[in-house]
Amino acid sequence: MTITCFIRYEIDPFQRESFKEYAENWGRIIPRCGGNLVGYFLPHEGTNNIAWSLIAFESLASYEAYRVRLKSDPESRENFAMAQTKRFIVREERTFLEVVDGTFGVPAVLADQ
């Protein structure tokens, strides 16, 4: 069973670029440490202080192994430290989800008009 870690961030909207840098760094780190990065998402319109990320794993056990690798990865530690120093993340919530079969990665099919 594949699970996805859904992370909801409350960010400082005046430090959007710092969060973007943080997310871009994870784009290199997460795959190297064993996570399947679905993506990071910044606010575009509407609410300006909520961002999200989704990272998929084969199981909770693979997630736990990934967390161990993150703690020993130098670039990961630097990225966490940068976030703590700049304080652009106000709050973080994690939820673990499972995909409903037949609903993920389904391409758009436009009907003839």
Can you walk through the features of this model?
By secondary structure, the chain is an alpha+beta fold. It is 38% helix and 29% strand. The chain is built from three helices and four strands, in the order βαββααβ. Strands 2-3-1-4 form a four-stranded antiparallel β-sheet. Strand 2 (36-41) and strand 3 (50-57) form a beta hairpin. Helix 1 packs antiparallel against helix 3.
What would a concise description of this structure say?
The protein has helices at 16-32, 60-72, 74-86, and strands at residues 3-11, 36-41, 50-57, 89-98.
Q: What is this structure's SSE topology?
A:
Elements (H helix, E strand, L loop, with lengths): L2 E9 L4 H17 L3 E6 L8 E8 L2 H13 L1 H13 L2 E10 L15
Antiparallel strand pairs: 1-3, 1-4, 2-3
Helix pairs in contact: 1-3
Task: Spell the H/E element sequence.
Answer: EHEEHHE
Which blocks of ≥5 consecutive residues have pLDDT under 50? none
Q: How do the strands line up in the largest sheet?
A: 2-3-1-4
Reported for the largest beta sheet, the result is: 4 strands, antiparallel
Cα-atom radius of gyration: 16 Å
Rounded mean pLDDT score: 94
The structural class is alpha+beta
Shape: globular
Secondary structure tally, helices: 3
Percent of residues in beta strands = 25-35%
Straight-line distance between termini = 39 Å
Share in helix: 25-40%
Describe this protein with a few key phrases:
single chain; 113 residues; alpha+beta; four-stranded antiparallel β-sheet; 3 helices; 4 strands; 38% helix; globular
